[in-house]
UniProtKB/TrEMBL annotation:
The keyword Metal-binding applies. It comes from the Eukaryota. GO terms for molecular function: metal ion binding; oxidoreductase activity. It comes from Aspergillus oryzae (strain 3.042). InterPro entries: DIOX_N (IPR026992), IPNS-like_FE2OG_OXY (IPR044861), IPNS-like_sf (IPR027443), Iron_ascorbate_oxido_reductase (IPR050231), Oxoglu/Fe-dep_dioxygenase_dom (IPR005123). PANTHER family: 2-OXOGLUTARATE (2OG) AND FE(II)-DEPENDENT OXYGENASE SUPERFAMILY PROTEIN-RELATED. Belongs to the iron/ascorbate-dependent oxidoreductase family. This is Iron/ascorbate family oxidoreductase.
Length: 334
């Protein structure tokens, strides 16, 4: 199975029939794989490249600078810089822990996170030594938020829902933008089976937008393989593409009609050094986690609950669900 590509221009600028065709194709992709490659959307190429460039600049700052805006681990949305090993995606799924067989496992990545502009409940943290960083990331946040509303509108249409049924659940804004850096490392560190750049997991929000560099390493679950732990690589193909994946809240809302896309980041094709050591090059990416309003329920919507398909998830707010999962990610009790 390969990742399918959907041209989004037909939904944005097409006739009503073209909009319906694109919406149906998009939903079919998300139902079958949980992932799709989207082209001709409204995130400018300069924004995509700018996010990757800002990521490289931020993560080359001295640790003494990054630690000034360090994220405090706990059951709350992440803000600022998270060091390597702080987030432990392996703990989100029982099969990861079973594979580790009681041994300590970890992610080999660091990241920067920011939430809505002017968030008073969970204030953002910005590096003072990069004055152009905050305005660019904030502008990118707004662009991605707007694009996600367009995608969710298409999903509504593809699912046969009333217009606005899902988008009304996405306010006030609670989405998060993340810049990621995976440092270079030896391949044998991953061959031992205790470390990955990111262990198999699903995201917590509704959908996720991903922009990646050319290094590779992203893998998505191959649901057609007929066996667990089967993944297919997803490399960047064109400059203006973005990868869209479904996340937990959409799975919960649709009562498993659309399942969250399982994915991991592991070893790309290693670069062979002159000393014969397989090295994994550094990798940068940026993701946008589109989320429901914090007080919005992420329990199954009535449209997806029937006698034959009873509610598969308990009712809780989007913030409660995020807090539940963030406790696990950070190993925080209570």
């Amino acid at each position: 199975m390969t990742l399918r590509t959907v041209d989004f221009s037909g939904f944005l600028h097409g006739t009503e029939e073209q909009r319906r065709q694109v919406a149906a194709e998009l939903v079919d992709c998300l139902k079958s794989l949980g992932f799709v490659r989207l082209i001709n959307h409204e995130v400018p190429e300069k924004t995509i490249e700018g996010l990757l460039e800002q990521s490289k600049r931020f993560f080359t700052l001295p640790t003494s600078e990054k630690v000034k805006i360090a994220n405090d681990p706990g059951p709350h949305p992440q803000r600022g810089w998270s060091r390597i090993g702080m987030e432990q995606t392996a703990k989100l799924r029982e099969e990861n822990l079973a594979e580790a067989a009681g041994r300590e496992v970890s992610d080999k990545k660091e990241h920067f996170d920011a939430g809505p502009l002017g968030d008073e409940q969970y204030p953002n943290k910005w590096p003072e030594s990069m004055p152009d960083f905050q305005p660019f990331v904030q502008e990118s946040y707004q662009i991605c938020q707007r694009t996600c509303f367009q995608i969710i509108s298409a999903i509504e249409l593809g699912l046969g829902l009333q217009a606005g049924r899902l988008t009304q659940c996405c306010q006030p804004a609670a989405s998060e933008i993340r810049l990621l850096y995976y440092p270079p490392t030896t391949k044998n560190l991953f061959d031992e089976g205790l470390k990955k750049r990111a262990w198999p997991h699903t995201d917590l929000g509704i959908i996720t937008l991903l922009f990646q560099d050319m290094v590779g390493g992203l893998e998505v679950e191959d649901r057609a393989a007929g066996k667990p732990r089967s993944f297919i690589p997803v490399k960047r193909v064109s400059p203006n593409e973005m990868i869209v994946n479904t996340s937990d809240s959409l799975q919960r809302w649709t009562n498993n009609v659309i399942r969250a896309g399982l994915h991991q980041v592991t070893a790309p094709d290693a670069a062979k050094l002159s000393n014969g050591v397989d090295m994994l090059p550094a990798r940068c990416s940026s993701v946008f986690f589109f989320k429901a309003g914090r007080d919005t329920s992420v329990g199954p919507l009535p449209e997806f609950v029937t006698e034959d398909r009873p509610a598969a998830f308990e009712d809780m707010t989007a913030l409660q669900y995020q807090q539940l999962k963030t406790r696990i990610l950070h190993g925080v009790e209570g």
